[in-house]
């Protein structure tokens, strides 16, 4: 009985950690399939999740976000908070935004985790009108 209980508890912890998105993730461009950057995701004291560019793997055309329309306009891409306000909803993280520092456009964002990969979906309006990038966990 003790072994069964221990197995259940360990399984519960593995499922709980499986759904987490905190940590460092290698972004992969969905068009070129090249690794572009490392994004670090964390949970702020407001209970929401945020992510910033912690490392650039490819030199961007511009080191700053020239197309951004908000507080990120003209700010360096390295260190930029590109994910804002995600809320955990079951196995999904929703209701936040993601900004493409290349264009400065901000999209609604949903993230789901599949093992050591994140499916990061950016969209305008409804989710069906968007695109998904797969990011890989960095150890």
From TrEMBL:
Protein origin, superkingdom: Bacteria
InterPro entries membership: DUF2147
Pfam family, one: DUF2147
Signal peptide: 1-19
Keyword Signal: yes
Keywords: Signal
Domain DUF2147: 23-137
Keyword Nucleotide-binding included in the entry's annotation: no
Protein name, per record: DUF2147 domain-containing protein
Organism, as annotated: Chryseobacterium aquaeductus
Lineage, top ranks: Bacteria, Pseudomonadati, Bacteroidota, Flavobacteriia, Flavobacteriales
């Amino acid at each position: 009985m003790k072994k069964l209980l221990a197995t259940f508890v360990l399984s519960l912890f593995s499922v709980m950690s499986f759904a987490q998105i905190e940590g460092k993730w290698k972004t992969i461009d969905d068009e070129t399939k090249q690794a572009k950057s490392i994004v670090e995701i964390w949970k702020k004291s407001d209970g929401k999740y945020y992510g910033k560019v912690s490392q650039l793997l490819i030199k961007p055309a511009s080191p700053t976000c020239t197309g951004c329309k908000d507080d990120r306009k003209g700010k360096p891409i390295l260190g930029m908070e590109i994910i804002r306000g995600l809320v955990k909803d079951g196995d999904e993280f929703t209701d936040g935004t993601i900004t493409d520092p290349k264009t400065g456009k901000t999209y609604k964002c949903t993230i789901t985790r599949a093992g050591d990969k994140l499916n990061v979906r950016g969209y305008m309006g409804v989710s069906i009108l968007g695109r998904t990038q797969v990011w890989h966990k960095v150890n």
